[in-house]
Amino acid sequence: MLTIWGLKNSANVKKVLWCLEELNVPYQQIDVGGKFGKLNDAEYLKMNPNAVIPCLQEDDFILWESNAIVRYVAAKYGQDTLYPASLQERASVEKWMDWGICNLFPPIKQFMISFIRTPAGQRDHNIISQSLAEIEKLLKIVDDTLSHQTYLSGTKFGMADIALAPLVYLWLNVEIERPSFPNLERWYQLLTARPAFQKIVMIEIS
Ligand SMILES: N[C@@H](CCC(=O)N[C@@H](CS)C(=O)NCC(=O)O)C(=O)O
């Protein structure tokens, strides 16, 4: 049985669980991180010395970094579906996965910490505005791209959508003023029709 260590409401864990659900792979999920702690326990650090989630365990095989886990799961169980056979298609998908973790995740994380996880009276509005400005700049690139392709992964749903949509979900589902990104909105609506997206990604934000 494949085990995923991590919280269901972490965007990086959602990627992995969503990918497994899309491919109908059986798994168990164990709560660690957030209010459950344990990330600095010796037992967890032996698996993931970075003390972050998610972490995959499959018999003796341990894998950390959410995008690496998504790639592994897609390559193992989704050769006919999520894992592009063509090198160029795969590189184009992986480009978005790298972009998501390097560019989009840092301001989303900053926004999560300073807005969602900070009580209203204690928020630093400068930090919140800066992170929102950065997120909007980056999502404009996503919106422009989606003006000429159905999915971030190309013509078909794939790993790039899985890696990016849990981050976009956070921004789209909190009470803030947002610019209109019609192509991104269309893409998001398309994803909301997927049962695995509804089950894993569309949950309460905390
Ligand atoms: N680059 C790492 C980032 C992992 C990460 O930052 N995870 C966050 C949750 S999204 C975490 O472990 N935070 C500590 C906690 O939730 O207690 C990955 O993609 O797996």
TrEMBL record:
This protein's UniProt keywords: Transferase
Keyword Calcium (UniProt): no
Stretches assigned to the GST C-terminal domain: 86-206
Top-rank taxon, per record: Bacteria
CDD domains: GST_C_2, GST_N_2
Pfam families: GST_C, GST_N
GO MF annotation list: transferase activity
SUPFAM superfamilies recorded: GST C-terminal domain-like (SSF47616), Thioredoxin-like (SSF52833)
Domain GST N-terminal: 1-81
Similarity-based family: Belongs to the GST superfamily.
Protein name: Glutathione S-transferase
Species in which this protein is naturally found: Xenorhabdus mauleonii
